[in-house]
Every structure is written in C-alpha cells, then in structure tokens.
Automatic annotation (TrEMBL):
PANTHER family: LD22376P. Residues 20-230 form the Heparan-alpha-glucosaminide N-acetyltransferase catalytic domain. The keyword Cytoplasm does not apply. This is DUF1624 domain-containing protein. Pfam families: HGSNAT_cat (PF07786).
Length: 384
C-alpha cells in the first residue's frame, strides 16, 4: 500500500515531505510478526494468558496487535497519497486495492470448503480493506482539522449508539456479548450463518464495530500528518507524538470507567487506549531508527513490514493446508501434518505444554523470517 523503496532510497527525517519512514516499516513488521505469533500457537489448549485475547471487557497485549496495524494503515496513507486534494487517478487505485484485500480475506474464509451458505463474510483482511478505503477517501477530501472532528464524532457517536440506543427485541441498551446493538445488527443482516463461528450470533469484525475501527485509522492519519510536518524539527515531532500518545492512552483509560475497553466491540475507549500506545511505540521507533539512525538492528523487522499483507495472508493459508494433510500416529489415529510435526519435533524437549506451544509459534515466525529476509535481500516487495 506504499511506494516500493529500498532503505537506501529513504529520505531523512529532516527532508521535505519524506516518502517513507523506515521506522514505520519496522513498527509494521513487529506488529505483523506478533500477529503471526498469537495466531499460530503449537497447541491452542495451552497458551500463556498475555498471548490470548481478553474474554470480554479488558485487554491483553494481544488485543493491541490488530488496532496497531490499523493505526499503521492510517499513518501509511498520509505518506502514500501525498497532499490532501491530490486525488487525480488515485480513487480508482484505492478502490481496487480495497477490493483486493477484501477478496483475499473472503478467500481465507472460503478455504477449504468454499461453501457460500456458511462462509463468514467479515474478517481481519476485510476490516483492513474497509478502513483503508474509508480513511484514504477521507484523506483526499479533508484537512487534518476536519479529520480530527470526524474522529471525535465517530467515537462519541459510537458511544451513544452502544450505550443509549435500545436493542430491538431486548428493550434496553447494553454491552453484553450476544444481545448488544452490534451483535443484533450482525445477526440481522449477516445472519448467524455468515459470522464468526465460535461466537455463533455476532462477529468480532462485524458491521457496526467497523465504524470505530475507522477511528483507529483516523488516529493513524493524524499521526502521519504530524510526522510529515516540515516546519518543526524531528525532536519536536517525537516529543509532540509522545505527549499526544500519553494523553490519548490516558483518555482511553478514563473512558473505560463508563464505556469499557473491549476489543470485540472495538469500543471508543479501546480506540483511544490502543491508539495512544501505538503513538508511543511509533515515537520510540521513529526516534531511534529515523532520527538517531540506529537502522541495522531494525532490518529484520523491516523484512516483515514491507511484505506484511503477503505474509499475513500466507501465514493464515498454509496452516489450513497442513491441517488437510493427514499422518497416521503409532496408535492408528490420523492427525494433521501440522499437529504431527508439533508433537514429534517441537514439543518433546519441553515439560511445560505452554512452553511447547510457544515454541511452536516462535518456530513458525522464524520460518517466515527466513523467507521474508531472503525476499528483502532480493528487494522483492509483493504489492497488494
């Protein structure tokens, strides 16, 4: 979703209108590597709590990964699309890229059964596509001040919808898992056949909660606008971003008192907390990598970052393929090739099943690092 530039072709933080930030690629790389880690444990029955999502209200480090990625999408938009109003020829490309991402997500949901009657329609890539589409079009037609007003309207409006509007068939506003307004909309329009199967009647990437997810992208856009400023120095940009991150995260924690932090509902407090922490993370990366020029140690993360969508798609597809391949155990039972490899190669050295499960996830990340590092050294960037 950004121009293909090698690290050697990057402009410095003091250059006018930098085309790409190595720190942003590294931050994206860390985010997608963590996404692969938490999505591919060796054993889903034995996972350390920080590597799981919060059951409902509250948050864990894992709950920050997806909003960090959407935040990065927003930052990337400001560098990829240039000045607001420069929309000639871009709208068609934006729509095409969004459609491609959405269809890739649908393919993952279809595979391997390809059943139109039960396929899940929402998903991670689908939400990324929608956020990218809306935020890109907003960026082309609005000023940063208007983007800020839109963000506030979305966050306050969503809070009002979820806490004040009575849920049809229930009679009162609530934030319970299966009877809140977002869940009602999912099962009414998508129907239970096309939502996340473990949730049965609602979807964590559902329709209404995509609205505040756009807010996460807008926070990223506002951050990108700040980093693109040329009238202040790099140190001032870092200090301003760090201060904004602290205040935004604090606002999210305060809002949690009457609109709980909740990833599944993507509550406004969750947008603020995750967005603020993302600002802090990017500020640190920007200071050390782009300002202080400590770049060599960031390159492994950059290898993940420049092909982020590709590795996310393939890391979701390949385990499903391995799950289709069956291997006979000694007791005569067939297990998937993925399970067989974990049980007989990765797990045996460990006595704690949680450590074995974590080792399985880290092995998967390491394998992808080898592939992505080779692509990076060959300057191969697969655009989506």
């Amino acid at each position: 979703m950004q121009p293909s530039l090698t690290p050697q072709g990057l402009l410095t933080p003091e250059s006018p209108r930098p085309a790409r930030l190595l720190s942003l690629d590294a931050f994206r790389g860390l985010t997608v590597a963590c996404m692969i880690l938490v999505n591919n444990p060796g054993d889903w029955g034995h996972i350390y709590p920080p590597l799981e999502h919060a059951h409902w209200h509250g948050w864990t480090p894992t709950d920050l990964i997806f909003p960090f990625f959407l935040f990065i999408v927003g930052v990337s938009i400001t560098f990829a699309l240039g000045q607001p109003g420069n929309s000639r020829g871009l709208v068609g490309k934006i729509i095409k890229r969004s459609a491609t991402l959405f269809l890739l997500g649908l393919f993952l949901n279809f595979f391997p059964k390809f059943n139109l009657l039960t396929v899940r329609i929402p998903g991670v890539l689908q939400r990324i596509a929608l956020v990218y589409l809306v935020c890109s079009l907003v960026f082309l037609r609005t000023t940063p001040r208007q983007q800020l007003y839109l963000l506030l309207a979305i966050l306050v409006g969503y809070w009002g919808l979820m806490t004040l509007v009575p849920v049809p068939g229930v009679g009162y506003a609530n934030l319970e898992p299966e009877i809140n307004l977002a869940a009602w909309l999912d099962r009414t329009i998508l129907t239970p056949a096309h939502v996340y199967k473990p949730a049965k009647v609602w979807d964590p990437e559902g329709m209404l909660s995509t609205l505040p997810a756009v807010g996460t992208g807008l926070l990223g856009m506002l951050t990108g606008n700040w980093l693109r400023r040329t009238d202040i120095g790099a140190a001032e940009r870092v200090a301003g971003l760090f201060a904004a991150g602290c205040l935004t995260a604090l606002a999210g924690l305060c809002w949690d008192g009457f609109f709980p932090i909740n990833k599944a509902l993507w509550t406004s407090s969750y947008v603020m907390l995750a967005g603020g922490l993302a600002m802090l993370g990017l500020a640190l990366f920007y200071w050390f990598i782009d300002v202080k020029q400590y770049r060599r140690g960031a390159l492994p993360l950059v290898a993940f970052g420049v092909n982020a969508i590709t590795v996310f798609f393939l890391s979701g597809l390949i385990p499903r393929v391995l799950g289709m391949l069956k291997v006979a155990e000694a007791d005569g039972h067939d297990v998937s090739l993925q399970t067989y490899l974990f049980r007989h190669i990765i797990a045996p050295p460990f006595t704690d099943p949680r450590n074995a499960s974590l080792a399985g996830a880290l092995t998967f990340v390491l394998i992808w690092f080898v592939v992505l590092w080779w692509l990076y050294r060959k300057n191969v960037i697969i655009k989506v």
